[in-house]
Amino acid sequence: MRAVVQRVSKASVTVEEKTISKMGNGLLIFLGIVNEDSKEDIEWLSRKITNLRIFNDSEGVMNKSLIEIDGEAIIVSQFTLHASTKKGNRPSYLEAAKPNIAIPVYEQFVLQLEHDLGKKVGAGVFGADMKVDLLNDGPVTLIIDTKKRE
Fold first, then answer.
1. Structurally, how many domains does the chain consist of?
2. What is the pLDDT at residue 149?
3. If pLDDT is split at 50, 70 and 90, which confidence band does 122 have?
4. Is 125 a member of any domain?
5. How far apart are CA 71 and CA 32, in angstroms?
6. Do residues 23 and 122 lie in contact, with contact meaning Cβ atoms separated by under 8 Å?
7. What CATH number corresponds to the domain at position 49?
8. Domain span including residue 73
9. Sorting pLDDT into bands at 50, 70 and 90, what band is 104?
10. pLDDT at residue 145, rounded to an integer
11. Region 8-24 average pLDDT
12. Which terminus of the chain, N or C, has less C-beta within 10 A?
């Protein structure tokens, strides 16, 4: 799994001109899935994201987690996170899991994040043409890959 995690002041996801997810202060998470992703990857990534100390404390130091600030989250599936641009100018998406594998993993990740965060989280619509609106706060943007665990 590969996630692009953005600290946001607000974010929303719209599909066919209808807002399906909306949030205030928290994290917007773009999630890419590969065939090899497992329950262990889901659990590790969810714990990592909910406990990242990337929110400011009272002294303006990034020292608080999403859990500690009681923040919100939206998770958006994004197969393009596993694009290969090694050859030519047209990205290859062969590494990205096909929907029959990716959808259940995506849904399990949403449930795991809700469990770890202790509240409902927003989500996109898998495979839909989504419009994502966000106000990046900082900006703070992190890329996390469960296969590298860096």
1. 1
2. 80
3. very high
4. yes
5. 22
6. yes
7. 3.50.80.10
8. 2-145
9. very high
10. 95
11. 97
12. C
